[in-house]
Design a protein that fits this description.
The protein has helices at 11-24, 36-49, 59-66, 73-95, 111-128, 145-159, 197-207, 236-249, 268-276, 286-302, 320-323, 325-347, and strands spanning 7-8, 28-32, 53-57, 98-103, 135-138, 165-170, 175-177, 180-182, 213-217, 258-260, 279-284. By secondary structure, the chain is an alpha/beta fold. The protein has a single domain, classed as Aldolase class I (TIM Barrel).
Length: 358
């Protein structure tokens, strides 16, 4: 198996990592981060599990990373994503694992966000031979297929010379994330939540000759965690898509790099099925948000006085050591790390890092 240098992958090391996932029958968790706390928790968890990992930022997460006080939302989204990427470039090598750096859902109105980030990657590539990000996602799944694919093709043409990939979405992931997404209609057949294998084949035939493309195909997956029962997960759609492409292109098994959105709250059996059908990236956002909140929340409930008084009114003791943000933020970080221990185990990536210092 090919080995890659620790740090952020692109070009040949990116495709080698996808190939290692497919050949090894495992997937990497893709975690939405919002600041250095969540980034460092993800790197720590990946290192201690000996797994490579995907770090991604949504447009809202990028804006938060830059600071909610910045008045220009577009500038904040661009600079916040760049700041996150630079933080990861600087530290990932130190943790000894390979990292895919990615941006999450961007619909048509967010194309200027990606355009500015790609310009930054072009500048970075000229200066260092490496882009700023490994890949971006362009989610035009609510538009007609032809428009989705034509715009995706023109973006991929800009990314390919930088060794960068594009994730597209076909069919609609239910629920919404950062204002992008679709409502579930209760009682309806929700057919728009299930991707047609013919559409996947069409996308693959157009985009794969241009560059590295990955596909978020919808099989009833939903963003966020809801009560079960509204939609049925049908991972066999992924298998049918792989089969359609394999038959038409006479390629080896699992030609498509597939992405599983809305994975929080899925059962182990559903995840196993999806990974066995060629999912190499499983997004985790909601469960990680909850892990962080649960850790911090438990700490606050345990030490309520320290969050209301600097000196304990009962004992006159200073409580600085309890309200120091490093204390409770660290509890949140550890809670993320523990949730990710489970994810690496379930996705089968534990101990499979391809990173090696030569
Ligand atoms: Zn998603």
């Amino acid at each position: 198996m090919s080995r890659v240098s620790p740090g952020v992958v692109s070009g040949a090391s990116y495709t080698a990592l996808i190939k290692a996932c497919h050949e090894g029958g495992y997937a990497l968790p893709a975690i939405n981060v919002v600041g250095t706390d969540s980034v460092n928790a993800v790197l720590e968890a990946a290192a201690r599990n000996g797994s490579d990992v995907i770090i991604q930022v949504s447009n809202g997460g990028a804006r938060f990373y830059a600071g909610e006080g910045l008045p220009d939302a577009h500038r904040a989204r661009v600079l916040g994503a760049a700041s996150m990427a630079r933080h990861v470039h600087l530290l990932a090598k130190e943790y000894g694992i390979a990292v895919i750096l990615h941006t999450d859902h961007a619909d048509r109105k967010l194309i200027p966000w990606l355009d500015d980030l790609i310009t930054m990657s072009e500048d970075e590539f000229k200066a260092t031979g490496k882009p700023l990000f490994t890949s971006h996602m362009l989610d035009l799944s609510t538009e007609p297929l032809e428009e989705n694919l034509a715009t995706s093709a023109s973006m991929l043409k800009r990314l390919a010379p930088l060794g960068m990939g594009l994730e597209i979405e076909l069919g609609v992931t239910g629920g919404e994330e950062d204002g992008i997404g679709h409502d579930l209609e209760e009682g309806a057949d929700n057919a728009h939540l299930y991707t047609q294998p013919e559409d996947v084949l069409k996308a693959w035939e157009l985009l794969s000759p241009i560059g590295t493309v990955s596909i978020a195909a919808s099989f009833g997956n939903v963003h966020g965690v809801y009560k079960p029962g509204n939609v049925q997960l049908r991972p066999e759609i992924l298998k049918n898509s792989q089969d359609a492409v394999q038959k038409a292109t006479h390629s080896g098994s699992k030609p498509l790099p597939l992405v599983f959105h809305g994975g929080s709250g899925s059962t182990i059996a559903e995840i196993d099925a999806a990974v066995s059908y060629g999912v190499f990236k499983m997004n985790l956002d909601t469960d990680i948000q909850f892990a962080f909140a649960h850790g911090v929340g438990s700490y606050v409930l345990e030490h309520p006085t320290a969050f209301q008084h600097q000196i304990d009114p009962g004992t006159d003791k200073p409580m600085k050591s309890l309200y120091d943000p490093r204390k409770w933020l660290r509890v949140g970080e550890k809670s993320i790390v523990e949730r990710l221990d489970e994810a690496f185990e379930i996705l089968g990536s534990k101990g499979r890092s391809v990173a090696r210092t030569s």
